[in-house]
Amino acid sequence: MQYSVHRLQSTTGKDNKFALDADWDRAEWRGVQPLELTHFMGERPTHFPHTQAKLLYDDEAISVIFRVEDRYVRAVAEKHQDDVFLDSCVEFFFAPADDVEKAYFNLEMNCGGTILLHYQTLPRIDPVELTAQEIAHIEVASTLPKIVEPEMPMPIVWTVEYRLPIRMLKKCYPSLVQPAPGVTWRANFYKCGDSTSHPHWLTWTKVEHATPDFHIPKFFGQLVFQ
User: For residue 49, what is the domain's CATH number?
Assistant: First the structure.
């Protein structure tokens, strides 16, 4: 699997930044081709939420937005680095180079915008948990409140958007390859809801494993910067 990440063409001013509002159809995102999560792990879930993501980049950050057509939505994680994967959650795992053997990040965000972010040199072995001060540099917007409890069983569309500073990533991964035309990173995208009434484990690239496990970087696809 391969996804082309285009450079942000902003009209908001020379700093190339825009206010985040989780609007999937905002001018900056309009015309950006989404990727879709069409694979799953474990048994095929009875609830298979249509999940899409878009990416853009500039010299300072990677911008990401997810759109989920969901049901059975729940979010109870109260602070960053809580177990957001138990909630209605979308995840971006990425190696900021074309080599998945060195290290990768797992950025997991529930529908209310609460983050879990680790740096892994080996899957699930001594992960580095980024601090609250570091996570505070990530700009976030979501269309749902921070806490969603009780679970919402009705159909709902929700989006989350964030801007991930490259400088922050380099502190963990000094050999990060700066996004630029022709550069390739490796990545996968996921949707889960482990403790919802209808758990599911969806993926962008197919992961060949007997049980759900997102921490298998050899199955990451390619992000190709344009």
Answer: 2.60.40.1190
pLDDT, position 15: 56
Q: Tens digit of pLDDT for each residue in 45-95?
A: 999 999 999 999 999 999 999 999 999 999 999 999 999 999 999 999 999
Predicted TM-score (pTM) of this structure: 0.95
**CA 176 to CA 170: how far, in whole Å?**
6
DSSP string, the chain: -EEEEEEP---S-TT--------TTSTTTTTPPPEE--EESSSPPS---EEEEEEEE-SSEEEEEEEEEESSEEE---STTS-GGGSSEEEEEEESSS-TTT-EEEEEEETT--EEEEEESBTTBSPEEPPHHHHTTSEEEESS-S-EEEEE-S-EEEEEEEEEEHHHHHHH-TT-----TT-EEEEEEEEE-TTSSS--EEESS----SS--S--GGG-EEEEE-
Domain extent at residue 23: 2-225
pLDDT band for 11, please (50, 70, 90 cuts). low
The strand pairing partners of 203, in sequence order, are 39, 190
Rounded to whole angstroms, the Cα distance separating 124 from 119 reads 10
**What whole-number percentage of the chain has pLDDT above 70?**
96
When divided into structural domains, the chain yields a total of: 1
